[in-house]
Specification:
Layout: E1 16-18, E2 23-25, E3 32-33, H1 35-45, E4 70-75, E5 81-85, E6 100-105, E7 114-115, H2 122-133, H3 141-146, E8 151-181, E9 186-209, H4 216-221, E10 231-232, E11 242-244, H5 250-270, E12 278-307, E13 310-317, E14 323-324, H6 331-358
């Protein structure tokens, strides 16, 4: 019959039973444990390990007649596919700027569940770019003064929305340190703790960009959208705009959704572990209940401009007006600013050094 060996939760050493204390004691760090405490810890650690984050990704199909008048346009350069109505004039690809051609009747993909209609128009997008450039000290003056927008397009971007309840158990190791002196000696006492947290967090409509042509970081920078203004999808909302045809499926988006949910869950639970001098995460277990994905179209204004032969793309949330995009940097202004900052820091260090010398 094999004997049960208990490891010290604090240092990992083999515990021994101390007959005088009637407790398990570690001969290395001298931590003491009741047997019941070790049994509960074993039960927790023996629970199924790892995460269980599965999703229901089924969705509604297009019904006969719903896609009448909708057409698919394909860019021969980058392969981007967008959806528009049959009256759409010749246009260019919102991703690479090359001409796109009509390929025929739209068909064959899941129907969106929701759509957030555009609230802001093209003029608001132009104004957003001007405001985005304000206060940027390192922006080349000629870019600001002579900037012209090559193209502005309103496009509905496909998003997969993930909703679930996350049941989590988190394990940490914590230490508390106490120091004191008796006048002759200084003492330090270190106590080690096993910390367990458990609970449920609700996640509603965590968005993941469903287009490989859209930069995920750019799209996440446009968040949040106000979903209370979303409506059931109708093709009429597409009139006058483009709609990106998703090429990243819900199944392919699960990994990104799980990453966002796991990261947020770990951050929230970690904030509950307080009162320790140091805390080290050990293990996390997350399982999902009522996990389902839905499909929505979100409004985005894309603005393209060219300067010094380089293309710059900006994006604006078509509902809230949040504006994002990288701007060029005036290298001369940057070095002037950097050298000025360095001289200020150098002068401050010299002044402090001189003051200490005087003292």
């Amino acid at each position: 019959m094999a004997l049960q060996e208990y490891k010290c939760p604090s240092c990992g050493g083999a515990l021994e039973f101390d007959s005088g204390l009637q407790k398990m004691k570690c001969p290395f760090c001298e931590s003491q444990y009741e047997m019941s405490e070790l049994e509960k810890l074993d039960e927790a650690l023996d629970a199924p390990q790892g995460d269980n984050m599965q999703w229901d990704t089924s969705g509604a199909e297009w019904q006969e007649g719903e896609t009448e008048g909708m057409r698919v346009y394909v860019c021969k350069s980058c392969g981007g596919e967008i959806i528009g109505d049959q009256s759409l004039a010749a246009t260019s690809c919102p991703y690479c700027g090359n001409p796109i051609v009509m390929m025929g009747q739209f068909s064959g993909t899941l129907k969106p569940d929701y759509i957030i209609p555009f609230k802001l128009d093209k003029e608001a997008a132009k104004k957003g770019l001007m405001q985005h450039m304000q206060g940027k000290r390192l922006l080349p003056k000629i870019f600001r003064d002579q900037n012209h927008i090559d193209e502005i397009k309103g496009i509905y971007v496909p998003f997969w929305l993930f909703t679930a309840e996350a049941n989590a158990r988190m394990f940490y190791k914590g230490t508390k340190i106490r120091t004191w002196t008796d006048g002759k000696f200084s003492y330090t006492e270190t106590n080690f703790y096993d910390i367990i947290r458990g609970g449920t967090l609700g996640f509603e409509r965590v968005p993941v960009d469903g287009s490989s042509k859209m930069d995920d970081t750019l799209m996440e920078s446009l968040e949040p959208y106000n979903f209370s203004e979303a409506v059931d999808f109708q093709t009429a909302y597409l009139a006058g705009y483009l709609a990106d045809k998703y090429d990243v499926t819900a199944e392919q988006s699960i990994e990104r959704a799980n990453e966002r949910i796991k990261r947020t869950t770990e951050q929230v639970f970690a904030q509950t572990v307080q009162g320790y001098n140091a805390v080290m995460p050990q293990q996390s277990m997350i399982s999902l209940n009522n996990a389902r994905a839905s499909y929505a179209l979100y409004p985005v204004w894309l603005l393209n401009t060219t300067w010094n032969g380089q293309k710059y793309t900006f994006a604006m949330n078509g509902q809230t007006g949040k504006f994002v995009g990288d701007l060029p940097t005036d290298k001369g202004a940057y070095w002037k600013w950097f050298l000025g900052l360095a001289s200020i820091v150098g002068a401050a260090v010299f002044a402090l050094s001189y003051l200490f010398w005087l003292l």
